[in-house]
TrEMBL record, chain A:
Keywords associated with the record: Cell membrane, Membrane, Transmembrane, Transmembrane helix
Location, primary (coarse class): membrane
Cross-referenced InterPro entries: ABC_transp_permease (IPR001851)
Its membrane topology: Multi-pass membrane protein
Gene Ontology cellular-component terms listed: plasma membrane
Region (Disordered): 327-369
The organism's taxonomic lineage, starting at the top: Bacteria, Bacillati, Actinomycetota, Actinomycetes, Streptosporangiales
Cellular compartment(s): Cell membrane
Gene Ontology MF, one: transmembrane transporter activity
Native source organism of the sequence: Streptomonospora alba
Protein name per Swiss-Prot or TrEMBL: Sugar ABC transporter permease
Length: 369, 338
């Protein structure tokens, strides 16, 4: 447990720093009030608007823990949003709960199918995850535009709107959805052996196979779960705006989600994941966007700000960087890596090389001698 | 009894044949990509009149010159086992710097080196972060993508037109070819870059090290190759190519805009993969990447000729093609290269 806390320390510090900066600029940043029977406040807003990102990051966590990656989630968001909105728009009674339920079910079903397809490519045909999901990332947006006919479909449906804007006992529905997904996932993977098996396969697929774990089914299930999460995020996003935009819905959200997962301490090289870390990572990425607005950072420099924070978090997680900062004169940067020493450590954790040995993972956390 | 002099000759001939067979096998993914390009073109010619003009084929080069340069740079990174997501943004940044400095009154002969320098510096910085601090390439270049795009917004949120006479002349100059056809300066530069890249990859120490590092980084290191120099080098090359692509893009589009090249990094990666280069590194050719870009370009040309098909079919067809090529690669690539 303490090891996990130690891993979460850097992301926690970053989040605390972000929130403190916000508090310094906006004194009422932490205030939460109840208006019209609904919670209001900046913190609630962060969680509310961060829900789609959080949902996708959760799905992405399992995929990354299996040493995979899913680039197609943004496209799946677009497809799911397009399907749901088109169904509601074409229905006789757009306002009836049955229509909305059918639309959401269809959208989630289609997303599950898309996830299944990714899983099939990765686990059965054994295509590298980054390429396998690149196919759907490119084609998926085309499919979404095909569904909406290249238009932005708008829907006027009260029950659908409530998915994003409604509340349950003063708590926004989005927060309930997010919390329920986190809880469900935690129960599934941490209260059963599932999470352990996933980490075993991700750490060393061959060892997992020898231990009798059916990696194929597990991988397909993880990608399907990721697809459903993306579909759910698509429903939330389109309910929030009341429209489906095949071109822009969930654009680049896959990159934010991967960022959130990595910030949360899950390694892209697989074999270890942390649900709490991912939740933290998603909240950090979302607070970053919020901070940009509250701090009055000009919108044109928002991206540079974000990039700087990304580099900062990545460097803070690099043991080498921390050692260098701690001891400025202790050890210079060698111009080329020596055969022994820290040069070996970064070399073996390449994001796009699933063939890398599993033994490199513990070495990463050690501070170079 | 065999005369002693023919024995070495025989063994040389034997190993030569084996080498040839092996080399032919290695060329299969590239030749398949070339075959598909030819088939696509043949299908287009059969369906539409005016498609089989030499100028239509040359226009593929003219219209995709920047993407070819981009894909060539990404090929280096992917061959070395990395990935570069920042190329589209660096292209936009370079185009933006060109437009901005020209508006500020800089002479064009200084503007172009400055734009290229920005790409080199960004690429080298990414390479250093990846190599020295062990940050995963995917994340580091993602940060670079945000950073370069952000710098574009910092320069200007609005489109800056380019009215410089030299840029205009470079954009309009046509190099005449036999048969009444012509090529633009950009296309010639793109072909030169592809040729230079092929030379560097196959005829220099750096190029061979790129393949070695991509094949197995730890083996390359144990062999005493300068892994760090290669890793920083490939990202620098990619940054340079992306910046050069940006300059070519300004010839093509005559403006700097922070929205230029959105998602172009994925087109470049897709072109490299279609061209038969393995994303795991160590296997592939620059020629394949050029063919990949031309294949994507042909699909677009066919859609233009068809006229009634909507733009989203490009994406769907490109995705389907990607799938076909990857399955082909899986079936044909040497077992060791998978």
């Amino acid at each position: 447990m303490s090891a996990q806390m130690r891993r979460l320390m850097w992301p926690l510090l970053v989040l605390a720093g972000l929130l403190a900066a916000n508090l310094a600029v906006t004194p009422g940043f932490f205030e939460i009030s109840v208006k019209d029977g609904r919670l209001y406040g900046s913190l609630v807003d962060i969680l509310h608007f961060g829900t789609p990102l959080l949902l996708i990051s959760l799905g992405m966590t399992l995929v990354i823990a299996l040493r995979g990656i899913d680039l197609s989630v943004g496209a799946v968001v677009a497809v799911s949003a397009a399907l749901a909105c088109e169904m509601i728009a074409a229905a006789d009674h757009p306002g009836s709960p049955a229509t909305v339920a059918a639309a959401v079910a269809t959208a989630l079903g289609a997303s599950a199918l898309l996830g299944l397809w990714n899983g099939f490519l990765v686990a059965v045909l054994r295509i590298q995850p980054i390429v396998a999901t690149l196919i759907l990332m490119i084609a998926g947006r085309g499919v979404a535009q095909l569904i909406t006919g290249g238009q932005i479909t708008t829907v006027r449906s009260e029950p659908y709107r409530r998915i994003a804007a409604g509340d349950v006992a003063a708590v926004p529905v989005t927060l309930v959805v997010a919390a329920a997904t986190v809880l469900l996932m935690w129960l599934l993977v941490r209260r059963t052996a599932l999470g352990l098996l996933i980490e075993a396969i991700g750490g060393n697929a061959e060892a997992g196979r020898l231990a009798g774990i059916r990696a194929t089914g597990m991988t397909v299930a993880a990608y399907t779960f990721c697809g459903v999460c993306a579909g759910l995020a698509g429903v939330v996003i389109s309910a929030n705006t009341g429209s489906a935009d095949g071109n822009n819905a969930g654009l680049w959200i896959e990159l934010d989600a991967i960022l959130a997962v990595v910030i949360g301490g899950t390694l892209l090289s697989g074999g270890r994941f942390s649900i709490a870390g991912t939740v933290l990572g998603a909240v950090i990425v979302q607070s970053l966007s919020t901070t940009v607005y509250t701090m009055g950072v000009p919108p044109e420099s928002a991206l540079v700000f974000k990039a700087v924070v990304v580099f900062l978090v990545c460097l803070l997680q690099s043991p080498r960087f921390r050692a260098q900062v701690a001891a400025p004169f202790g050890r210079g940067r060698p111009p080329r890596p020596a055969p022994t020493g820290p040069g070996l450590a970064p070399s073996e954790e390449d994001a796009v090389r699933p063939t890398a040995t599993g033994a490199d993972e513990p070495g990463r956390q050690e501070v170079p001698r | 009894m065999t005369p002693p002099s023919t024995l070495p000759g025989l063994s040389v001939a034997l190993s030569r044949t084996r080498e040839l067979a092996e080399r032919r096998r290695r060329f299969i993914p590239v030749s398949m990509a070339g075959l598909v390009l030819v088939l696509l073109f043949a299908a287009g010619s059969a369906r539409y009149t005016g498609f089989l003009e030499p100028q239509v084929a040359l226009n593929l080069l003219v219209n995709n010159a920047f993407l070819i340069v981009l894909a060539v740079g990404v090929t280096f990174v992917i061959l070395a086992g990395g990935i570069d997501l920042s190329t589209g943004s660096v292209l936009a940044l370079s185009a933006m710097i060109c437009a901005w400095l020209l508006r500020e009154g800089w002479p064009p002969v200084l503007v172009i080196p400055a734009a290229l320098l920005s790409g080199v510096v960004l690429g080298a910085a990414q390479g250093c972060i990846i190599h020295f601090y062990g940050v995963q390439p995917f994340i580091a270049t993602l940060g670079g993508m945000f950073f370069a795009r952000g710098l574009c917004y910092l320069i200007s949120t609005e489109s800056i037109p380019i009215t410089d006479p030299l840029f205009g002349a470079l954009a309009q100059t046509r190099i005449p070819l036999p048969g009444g056809t012509s090529l633009s300066v950009g296309a010639v530069v793109a072909l030169a870059v592809a040729g230079a890249a092929a030379y560097v990859l196959h005829r220099t120490r750096f190029g061979r090290s790129v393949y070695a590092v991509g094949g197995s980084e730890s083996s390359a290191m144990l062999m005493g190759l300068a892994v760090g120099r290669v890793k920083v080098g490939v990202y620098t090359v990619s940054g340079f190519c992306a910046a050069l692509g940006g300059v070519l893009y300004t010839f093509y589009i005559a403006s700097g805009n922070s929205l230029h090249g959105l998602g172009m990094e994925l087109d470049a990666i897709a072109a490299v993969v279609i061209g038969g280069t393995l994303l795991t590194g160590g296997f592939g050719y620059v020629l394949g990447s050029v063919v990949g870009v031309l294949t994507l370009g042909t699909i677009q040309t066919i859609l233009v000729f068809e006229g009634t098909l909507s733009s989203w079919w490009t994406k769907i067809v490109a995705g389907a093609l990607l799938l076909v090529f990857i399955l082909l690669q899986r079936a044909l690539a040497p077992r060791s290269a998978r």
